[in-house]
Amino acid sequence: VQLVESGGGLVQPGGSLRLSCAASGFTFSVYRMSWYRQAPGKERELVATINRGADITNYGDSVKGRFTIFRDNAKSTVYLQMNSLKPDDTAVYYCKATYNGYVYWGQGTQVTVSS
């Protein structure tokens, strides 16, 4: 089982990034997928989640209206489109797969928002 995040990097405030999380080793299409983030000295927090049918999404209050989660079950990949980035969005971003008691995490990708 693998979840591999990519797309992180350094971006200026107001900029955009798209994160990807490529899954393998399990039946991606039945899993609920989520993005979390953890900033230095802070607890890991939920950023966004999407159900297996991709018709229900939920977002953390701090990212509503700026971030969009979507998935491509044919590619076993979940994405996080991040717009209007702020310095407070700086964190390591992780994807998570959940289904029927099974939970998998990726290794994370660093996002730094700074001028």
Question: What do these coordinates show?
Answer:
The protein is an all-beta fold. It contains no helices and eleven strands. It has strands spanning about 1-5, 10, 15-25, 30-40, 45-50, 55-60, 65-70, 75-80, 90-100, 100-105, 110-115. Strands 2, 4, 5, 6, 9, 10 and 11 form a seven-stranded mixed sheet that branches. Strands 1-3-8-7 form a four-stranded antiparallel sheet, with no helix packed on it. It is globular, with a radius of gyration of 13 Å. The termini are far apart. About 30% of the residues are buried. The model has no long low-confidence stretch (mean pLDDT about 95).
What would you call the shape? globular
In whole angstroms, how far apart are the ends?
A: 37 Å
- Fraction of residues in helices? under 10%
Which structural class is indicated by helix and strand composition? mainly beta
- Helix and strand pattern: EEEEEEEEEEE
